[in-house]
Amino acid sequence: MPNIKSAKKRVLVTEKKSQQNKAIKSALKTTIKKFLAAVNAGDKDTANALYPETVSAIDSAVTKGILHKNNAANKKAKLAKKLASLAA
């Protein structure tokens, strides 16, 4: 444990931010899994409804610094491709 007051604060702040980042990342993974489950089930209506929510969650994670913008673009492209294959 650090002795300097500012270092003690940094430990606490880092712990809190790590928990927040973990929660956001977990929620993101959950939304992606729901979308993929709908696609795999062949449920077009549910997949079309979940797609905007999933993309929004990915964009939100980028804004908060959880994901890199290129990683997010890659994820969104893969999801769009799966949605398009379902519609075809």
Largest sheet: none
The portion of residues forming beta strands comes to under 5%
Q: Based on the structure, what is the oligomeric state of the protein chains?
A: single chain
| Structural class estimated from helices and strands | mainly alpha
- The count of DSSP E runs of length 2 or more, i.e. the number of strands, is 0
User: Which consecutive residue ranges, at least 5 long each, have pLDDT under 50?
Assistant: none
Overall radius of gyration: 18 Å
Query: In whole angstroms, how far apart are the ends?
Result: 58 Å
Taking all residues together, what is the mean pLDDT? Answer: 96
Please write the string of helix (H) and strand (E) elements: HHH
Shape: elongated
Count of discrete alpha- or pi-helical segments spanning 4 or more residues: 3
Key words describing this protein structure:
single chain, 88 residues, 86% helix, 0% strand
Give your account of this protein's structure.
The protein has about 90 residues and is mostly helical. The chain has helices spanning about 5-40, 45-65, 70-85. The longest helix is centred in the first third of the chain and has 37 residues, at about 5-40. The protein starts with a helix and ends with a helix. The model has no long low-confidence stretch (mean pLDDT about 95).
